[in-house]
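cron nightly-structures :: item 1 of 1
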Amino acid sequence: MSSIKAFRAIRYNPEKINDLGDVLCPPYDVILPKERTALANLSPHNFVHIILSQDTAQEDRYKRAKGLFSQWRDNGILIQDEQPAVYFCRQDYKAMGQKYSRLGFISLMRLHDDDKSKVRPHENTHTYAFKDRLRLWRNLNANLSCIFVCYADKAKNIENIFNRKVASQKPLVDVTDHDGVTHRLWRFDDTVLIGEINSSIGDQNLFIADGHHRYRVAQEIRSQKLARMTGKPTGDEPFNYVMTYFTNIESRDLQILPMHRIIKTFPCDLTILEEYFRIDRMRSKTDLLIALARSGRNEHAFGLYTNKGGVRLLRLRNKLLVDQHIQEGSMEYKHLDAVILKHFIFDRINIKSEHIIYTKEFKEVTGVVDRGEADAGLILNPVSITQLKAIALNGERMPPKTTYFYPKILSGLTVYTMD
């Protein structure tokens, strides 16, 4: 049974949109309110008007998004490709001072019942976000943003197809976002080579990197439509697929960034933590990052940046403490830094989740603390691909905001309608 399928994507019409950079946007769940306003002001056709529409006196945001989507299609702002294709996507970016170039492709992925699926989530979902996306997708009968899935291809067969057949062509999309990430998109409709791509993926486990809520929504829509069917499903109905971005988990260009914690109220006296941590003073922010990365290779360590006590490195005294104090979960789960942080720091000093702000940006942590808007920031090392795979294969879920795959796939590159 095929894992992937070409599709007729709905895309922005380059004859109507002069600058695609004005209409593409990040996924809905990383857009802050002020960023939503800035994106909306870029263009009346920015995709944020669809994925984060706003209520009006006349209609709620879901009906408004449906109306805009239909209007843009009728007016030729959005057009649909005539032939099914997959869409290669390459992103050139910098992370922690290093240059990367991540290659992936967008296609449809077949959905299965949970007991037959080899798609492995790794994070929990929240009810509000699930219900919000479900209402939006159901109103438009469309997948508006890709889920982000990793496959294994050590031989780089898919990358070789891209290099041989696609890389020399002019991309459909070539934009650079405000983070300096260059996004390029190519359309590819060679049915024989798409078959080879599908064979390279085969029947292996696929790991969700990003888009857990969107994946759950796609499953729910499928379940509801199957329940309403009177005849026997063929398995090829549009609702049996979800639009997905695939990338190679074996690639060095697949980067997971750490998610740091900003704490508004944090005690000055760290005596309560000394039972479990060695606490070392650091001379500077740069020294902290170097020491944190080095310590993270062999032990559990956290950076602590405060507005009164300076910069410190916290190192767990003994790994055996993990099994002694954390009862739930597998060995891989217990040894996640996010889990250790909660049990040995936040629980001991009574920091509640609603008082924590999450960010991938170290500069944001230090800036907020320096301005006196928060007492402290906890700096983490990133989760490894090995940890992610192990926990997903165990059927476990990481705590929220544990991973941040970077860069994100822009919304508005492709849309899949389940008509």
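cron nightly-structures :: done
The longest strand covers residues 98-110.
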